[in-house]
Amino acid sequence: MNPFYSVVLPTFNRSDFITGAINSLLNQTFDDWELIIVDDGSTDNTKEVVEQYSKKDPRIKYVYQKNSERSAARNNGIDKAKGNFVCFLDSDDEYDKNHLKILYDEIHNSVEKSNHFFITNAQIKSKDRKKKLKNKVIVRSNSLETILLNSITPGQLCIPSKLIKENLFNTDIRISEDTDLLIRLAKNNTYKILPYHTHIYIEHEYNSVNPVKFNAYKERLNTLKYILKMDVCKGINKKLKRKILSDCYFGISKYYYAQNRILKSKLILLKALLIYPEIRLKEKLYLIIKNNKIQ
């Protein structure tokens, strides 16, 4: 008998994090799941760490692939998924113990079954546990605006298996691939945002979307420009587009400030202000002050 959930977990050299992710599955109050761990060419001891779990629990499967980035790893896991619904979990994140049970109850109370997917809210926790846990709240507007204005990660998603198998991740996109997927899914399908903060995003220095360390907003900007050209996005008003682009430029400006490239930071910050000054205005002004203190 197939499990109710397939949880797809892509990983690359995260042996020091992945135990937290796996344990958060093992601690779930709902236990009808399989965990498909797709190792995207790790060179550390990820395999040995995972095998300590898979030898004891047949629900945990380990798949190795040549390094192809996380979208390809997730697609590989989706292909092997046997569950009725597919969820995602990154190897450096976790689930609250009631995550799958809450989703299960929502699914069974839903009128829509085949073309309806679910998005949970999330909470942010630092790896060193020194920062206070904070909730990440999805700001709702209309369908596409909600997706474009919020940073919704794959770990917040629960999608019918048939639906996700027909709408895979775009392997040409490395950052904001989740936004691209959601835009395509929302075109012909409905979704429900749950108020529960049951996905736990772990903040740490090596997050792949760390804007200060990896200039993630530069790649996000390229992805969003690509998305905004899609037919489904043609009706989006210019004000929203400016808001989205301004936010990206502000993120890029912060990266260059962190790299002590002050002139570059100032020029891009000016661009962010000219495009849409109101969004994150206090943060922009604060960065202007910091930039001007360094001569």
Walkthrough of the structure:
With 295 residues, this protein is of the alpha/beta class. Helix content is 44%, strand content 20%. Strands 1, 2, 3, 4, 5, 6, 7, 8 and 9 form a 9-stranded mixed β-sheet that branches. Strand 1, helix 1 (18-26) and strand 2 form a beta-alpha-beta unit. Helix 5 runs antiparallel to helix 7, helix 9 (216-228) runs antiparallel to helix 10 and helix 10 (238-258) runs antiparallel to helix 11 (262-275).
What's this model, at a glance?
The chain is of the alpha/beta class and 295 residues long.
Shape: globular
Report, as a whole number of angstroms, the end-to-end distance.
67 Å
What is the H/E string? EHEHEHEEHEEHEHHEHHHHH
What amount of the residues lies in strands?
15-25%
Q: What is the mean predicted local confidence, pLDDT? A: 88
Specify the biggest β-sheet.
9 strands, mixed
Low-confidence residue ranges: none
Total beta-strand segments:
9
Specify the structural class: alpha/beta
Q: What is the number of helical segments per DSSP (H or I, 4+ residues)?
A: 12
Radius of gyration: 20 Å
Residues in helix, %:
40-55%
